[in-house]
Amino acid sequence: MPERQAVRVLKKTMTAVGWRNRVGVTVIWTTDREMRRLNRKTRQCDRTTDVLSFPLFTKRELGARRPKRGGALPLELGDIVISVPEARRQAKANQRSFRGEIMLLLVHGALHLAGFGHAKPAARKKMFGLQNKILGSLNAEKSVML
Q: How many structural domains is the chain composed of?
């Protein structure tokens, strides 16, 4: 996915959660091997995964750190790591385009950086509902996860 398209997806996601000011996000494209290593190290799960997010702030900390409109420097929110091979497999398995799968993973990862989670049913419903709304606004294939 070209950088300008990834930036568009991330901007749309941040706007949807009320962050209309400048924020910084690092996106790292990686292999299954590296993703498995990261997943094992950070989540004690010894397998690859599609996307991992590494927020710099908790949801509570984010509330106090919203950047001022027109601020000189963006607020760095954290990193999104995407396994390209896993994204390709998931796109095929879910009958989505590779581009659509990458858009889904970028939105999902950015929502985690913005403080959303899906560990509890109510939080899951809220996060995936918003994720689908954002993907719809981007004319992307929607997630099937609710």
A: 1
